[in-house]
Design goal:
The chain is mainly α and 498 residues long. The protein has helices spanning 2-11, 16-53, 57-67, 74-84, 90-95, 103-139, 144-172, 176-181, 189-198, 203-229, 247-275, 280-286, 300-327, 330-337, 344-355, 365-388, 393-400, 405-416, 418-434, 437-442, 450-458, 463-491. It contains 22 helices and no strands.
Length: 498
């Protein structure tokens, strides 16, 4: 209903000036998203090759290094890039930056966030190719170049294109990165929607921009879903039989070490920035007190506890709702995937237009509802895949032994899917904890979330405020990293006992 009201308001205010403004901002947003996608593809392909050709503990560490950034709050990335690309640093000299803002920093942040999406899709497809298909080609005498051009790349193309579309979608709908790191020099539809809503109070123009952004996002989601169905996966997949040897083994190891350094190194620099300065103890003590002049009426630690409580409720509700959606036919699963194309800003604007006239904007459950909607497609997809991989023979055997449907669900289905349910809940927890856009529009000064408080600290001058932002970012990184690593470990399928 909120999106329907927003669509009605947006389509009712179309005029020439709005279309011209929308076209200008849309072209700039598409250009930025396309550049981010191409750079992410260039980074993802060698990383995926190294993971496939040299499995082991180092590969697992590299896999986690590229996966964790996806759920890190955008204010945390802004804090890290502000530390890395500070004036007179190597990053500032490389990109010609006087301050850590601009298109180069935005693209760098998008690549750091979204490379893991590409790696995940391409890795699954490449694993299947490197098994039976690659072995059959080697048996028939195909050279490495022939296997690459006639087998690997054609079979990887659907996965690559689907991953590129998802990265383009996430970069196209990026809000926090562009707002905090763009410095008013990177046009974006999401940022313009927020400005028209919060600064100019032009809900008509904001709704128009949000409608077209939503339509384009839904189109990209539909195309990406169609492409993912064409990904060739070996149903009889076994461990990779053609591992790198000789110099390839060393190159793959060096690539995995470089991946860990590039994607996990910023976390280490953030921790150093939070602990090394002389004012670190004062910064950590100040987290327990309200920040004077910030416009927020609670302390940063109180915002952290509120974010953790909201994330816990969102995880429980999302898992229950996702179970209902994945229990139905394919159409219910498709309905659950629709919010994947809805950004936090678009959803927040829809809530303002729908719940505002009803007088419910002060309700504390609005943020929880928004986070449930944002996490629903990701959790439903993960839980649906786990339920599809569950062999029906277990339920048939239980029914044969006289178990009722409730007994089958409690004694058979739930124990077999316990790990998948916990992993899906942890993923919803991380998505809720890292949200910045929806909370920016729906939170009140007395109920801010931790990412919102972190962004407010970054916008205030003073060494103590920056030290507090770094300390708060370390707390969020630790929580998100632990949750995401736990979700990744639990999501791995266990081998059946022999």
């Amino acid at each position: 209903m909120p999106l329907g009201v927003m669509g009605w308001r947006g389509l009712a205010w179309l005029d020439g000036a709005t279309l011209t403004q929308m076209a200008r901002i849309g072209v700039a947003t598409i250009g930025q998203a396309l550049l981010s996608t191409l750079v992410a593809l260039v980074c993802a392909l060698p990383i995926t090759w190294a993971l496939v050709r040299r499995p082991g503990v180092l590969a697992t560490s590299a896999w986690l290094a590229v996966s964790v950034p996806f759920v890190i709050p955008t204010p945390v990335s802004a804090t890290m890039l502000t530390t890395i690309c500070a004036p007179h640093s190597w990053c500032a000299m490389l990109f010609g930056l006087e301050v850590p803002q601009g298109l180069a920093v935005v693209v760098l942040a998008h690549v750091w966030y979204n490379t893991g999406v590409l790696v995940r899709l391409v890795y699954d497809a490449w694993q299947g190719i490197a098994g039976r298909y690659d072995a059959a080609a080697m048996t028939l005498g195909a050279s490495p170049w022939r296997r690459l051009t006639t087998i690997v790349l054609p079979l990887l193309w659907p996965a690559m294109l689907a991953g590129m579309l998802l990265v383009f979608l996430y970069s196209f709908g990026s809000f926090g990165v562009v707002l905090l790191l763009g410095g008013n020099r990177v046009p974006s539809l999401e940022v313009e929607i927020w400005r028209q809503t919060s600064q100019f109070l032009r809900l008509d123009i904001a709704a128009t921009l949000a409608v077209w952004q939503l339509l384009m996002s839904l189109l990209l989601v539909w195309v990406a879903d169609r492409l993912q169905r064409r990904i060739v996966l070996d149903v009889q997949r076994r461990p990779t039989t053609h591992r790198a040897t000789g110099w390839g083994w060393w190159v793959a190891g060096a690539g995995q070490l470089a991946t860990i350094s590039c994607f996990a190194g910023p976390f280490g620099l953030l921790v150093m920035r939070a602990w090394l300065p002389d004012d670190w103890s004062q910064a950590y003590r100040a987290l327990a007190l309200p920040v004077r002049g910030s416009g927020l009426f609670v302390s940063p630690l109180a915002a952290v506890w509120r974010s953790l409580w909201i994330a816990l409720v969102v995880a429980l509700v999302t898992v229950v709702v996702s179970w209902g959606f994945t229990s139905g036919n394919r159409w219910w699963r498709r309905i659950a995937m629709i919010p994947l194309g809805v950004s936090g800003v678009t959803l927040g604007l829809g809530y303002l237009l729908w719940f505002g006239p009803l007088g419910l904007l002060q309700a504390s459950w609005l943020v929880i509802m928004a986070h449930v909607v944002l996490a629903l497609p990701l959790v439903s997809r993960q839980l649906g895949l786990a339920r599809d991989q569950l062999a029906p023979t277990y339920a048939i055997a239980a029914a044969t032994l006289g178990a009722t449907p409730w007994r089958q669900w409690w004694s058979v289905t739930m124990p077999l899917l316990r790990r998948a349910l916990v992993a899906a809940g942890l993923f919803a927890f991380a998505v809720s904890l890292g949200d910045f856009a929806a909370a920016l529009l729906l939170s009140r000064p007395d109920t801010p979330t931790a990412p919102l408080f972190l962004a407010r600290l970054l916008g205030r001058p003073g060494a103590l405020n920056y030290a507090m932002a770094a300390a708060l970012a370390v707390v969020l990184v630790l929580v998100c990293a632990v949750v995401m690593i736990g979700a990744q470990v639990l999501a791995r399928p266990r081998q059946a006992p022999k």
